């Protein structure tokens, strides 16, 4: 499984966890749909959930005139996923994380998502 695909599936799993309070492992199983499990996907989902409070704090500090709760579910979880990767996946260059976030936002978010995701992730990258 390509890393982009793993990120997309991780976003779908985080979305499920956020909306229906699914258990991380069952959300991962659900998005895999009989595909073999993927270590990177599993790391992203579990890592984002285990570090959710510190990740959410970092996102909140960089939101202007928004609350985390008011963000579109896709945007909120894509930010969680990308911020996790920026903070904890040192083998992925920050610009790659941001580019991937933007591309996934174009596919799953609305017209403004990619600009919004780019803005927030760029601010967080500067703080690291």
From TrEMBL:
On whether RNA-binding is a keyword of this UniProt record, the answer is: yes
Query: What superkingdom does the record give?
Result: Bacteria
Task: From the Swiss-Prot or TrEMBL record, give the protein name.
Answer: Transcription antitermination protein NusB
Where's the NusB/RsmB/TIM44 domain? 5-125
Q: Which CDD domains match?
A: Terminator_NusB (cd00619)
User: Could you name the Gene Ontology cellular component terms for this entry?
Assistant: cytosol
User: Which Gene3D superfamilies does the entry link to?
Assistant: NusB-like
């Amino acid at each position: 499984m390509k890393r982009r695909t793993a990120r997309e599936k991780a976003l779908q799993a985080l979305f499920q966890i956020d909306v229906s309070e699914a258990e991380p492992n069952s959300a991962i199983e659900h998005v895999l749909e009989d595909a073999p499990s993927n270590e990177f996907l599993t790391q992203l989902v579990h890592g984002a959930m285990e570090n959710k409070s510190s990740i959410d704090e970092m996102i909140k500090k960089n939101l202007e005139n928004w609350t985390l709760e008011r963000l579109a579910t896709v945007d909120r979880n894509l930010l969680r996923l990308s911020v996790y990767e920026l903070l904890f996946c040192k083998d992925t260059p920050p610009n790659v994380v941001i580019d991937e976030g933007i591309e996934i936002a174009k596919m799953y978010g609305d017209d403004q998502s990619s600009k919004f995701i780019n803005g927030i992730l760029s601010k967080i990258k500067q703080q690291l």
